[in-house]
C-alpha cells in the first residue's frame, strides 16, 4: 500500500502571500498544483493590528472572525472565490494599499453542498474525503443532538461557530474527548470541562454530538462546523508534552509541515498560534500570528520544520511549557514519502 494518497498537498491546502492595492485586487495562487477555488479562505493582515477575515464558500455572502465572538457579518471584503484564487474588494482589512497579508486556503468540494441526514439534525455538508475536511452548516434545536459531518471517518478535531449571533468559537480535540472544549475567541482560554457543548461524547465516522448550550446548539440558531480527520502524509491533529527547554520535543507528523496551529491546553493567557513555511522559508520558524487576537505578525524562534514533523526550539509557556499538553493541527508541504516511494528532503 502506498504511504500516502496525496503526493502534492497544495492540491488541497495553500498559503498565499500578497500586498494590498486599495482597489479591486485579483489574487492568483502560486502553488504547485493548488490553483483551486478555496472553500475556506482565511485572511490576516501581517503588518498591523487587524481582525481576521474568514470566508466560507457554503455561505460566502458573510464572513466570520476567529479573534471575535461576533455573529457573521456581511461580506464586503471578498468579491469572489475564483478557480485559481480569489478577488478582493477595497476594505483595509484585506486590501490596504501596501499592506502585507497572508491567506490560508482549504479545498472542500468546490462549494457544492448536499443534505446529510446521518444525525438527528439534518445538516448541509460539503466534504473532501480525500483531504479529510468538511464544512457543515446546521440549525440548532436547543436539546442534545447529533450532526452528520460527511467525512466517512472519525474526525480528530472540529471547530463550531454560531453564525446567527455572538458566541465564542468552540473547539473539539480528540486529545480531550467530548468533555473538554476550547473557546478560541476568548484569548488565553485553556481546555475546560464544558459537557453541554459536545454532550461529553466523542464523534463517530458519521456524526458529532451536541449538548444544549447556545454556543453549539441554540434553538433555531445557525452554525458552521469545520471538521478535520488525519490523512497520512497530509494532515495530523494531536498533542505533545512540553519540556520547558530549548531542546524541545519532536512531533512526528509523517510529512514536512506547511502550516502548524498550536495551543497550550493547560495554561491560561496563552494564545492560539499559527506558523507556516511560506512566511518563513527556512529554519527556524519565527513568524507567528495569533488566531485569537488581532495583533500584527510577531517574531520569536519557535520551531524547526523537518522532513517528517516539527521540533520545538524554545522553552516558553505558549509552545513548550514543561509538563503542559499542547494541542496542534498540521498540514503538509510534502509527504515524508510519496506514493511512489520517493522521500522528501529536509529544509
Note down, in words, how this protein is organized.
By secondary structure, this protein is mostly beta strands. The protein folds into three domains: 9-106, no CATH class; 114-228, no CATH class; 236-335, no CATH class. Helices cover 5% and strands 41% of the residues. The protein has four helices and 27 strands. It has helices spanning 92-95, 195-198, 214-217, 317-320; strands at 13-19, 25-28, 40-45, 53-56, 62-64, 73-74, 78-82, 85-88, 100-106, 114-116, 123-128, 133-139, 145-148, 157-162, 170-173, 180-183, 192-193, 207-210, 222-228, 235-241, 250-252, 255-264, 273-276, 285-290, 298-306, 309-312, 325-335. It has an eight-stranded antiparallel β-sheet. A hairpin with a 7-residue loop joins strand 24 (285-290) and strand 25. The chain is globular. The two termini are 27 Å apart. The model has no long low-confidence stretch (mean pLDDT 94).
Helix count, DSSP H or I runs of 4 or more residues: 4
Q: Identify low-pLDDT runs.
A: none
Read across the widest sheet, the strand sequence of neighbours is 10-11-12-19-14-15-16-17
What portion of residues belong to β-strands? 35-45%
Biggest beta sheet summary: 8 strands, antiparallel
Q: Return the domain count.
A: 3
- The overall strand count is 27
Distance separating the two termini: 27 Å
Q: Helical content, roughly?
A: under 10%
Shape: globular
**Structural class, from helix and strand content?**
mainly beta
